[in-house]
């Protein structure tokens, strides 16, 4: 079968774990050269080895503008331009209103909002005509979840970015879409429950009970949707929020 991203250059931020890693593997399998980023060096090296010879690792914190400059200098030098940008790096933590700290706010908004904004803005000179930009949202951006308001608000901001940026970029033929996973079994999700395995399973069971399909998602199921948004299969899809959530946010 023809590869959907043959000869394309893709950048996946937060490509060393969970949804980003699964997507980087799919992008590579579809023929793309894939730059992956993350802050931790050991995880980055392991991810590059797992993705294969078309992967290039760049250690970079997406919330640090100097790191983003180095990332895109490297992409420019080694690939010349970008066809697919998956601004996926992010995450969150749980605290109820009344206990929210400045540190939690800053950490969450720096990763999920500042990082996404400047990842896309700094990539603009390298994005090729017809490029696909994918932002990682979340069902949390449109739902209420106890103790999760800071994360939810950050993902609502991400969804809003896509609506507005397609107007800013309308003369450049760049598509921007938000991919919003529901609960997906990743290290980032299970870590929300802390280090105890029983508590982690309890969280997964609770989240599965909220999903009409009765289970949480697998990272590869999000990656398949990312391939759709990255490829020509979605050539007239622009500004949407694609929920991949087993129906959770649709009921
Ligand atoms: N799993 C879910 O249920 C779910 C649901 C909805 C949305 N999401 C979203 O999906 C995205 C991926 O989450 P995941 O569940 O796959 O989490 P994960 O397993 O924790 O992976 C997160 C990835 O992002 C990287 N990262 C985090 N902060 C970063 C930063 N400031 N700069 C660069 N890289 C950074 C991590 O590597 P380092 O820590 O080494 O930097 C890692 O590679 C996030 O935006 C998350 O909010 C997840």
From TrEMBL:
Residues 8-182 form the Ketoreductase domain. Keywords: Oxidoreductase. It comes from Rhodopseudomonas palustris. It comes from the Bacteria. This is SDR family oxidoreductase. One of its GO terms (molecular function) is oxidoreductase activity, acting on NAD(P)H, oxygen as acceptor. Belongs to the short-chain dehydrogenases/reductases (SDR) family. InterPro entries: KR_dom, NAD(P)-bd_dom_sf, SDR_fam. Pfam families: adh_short_C2.
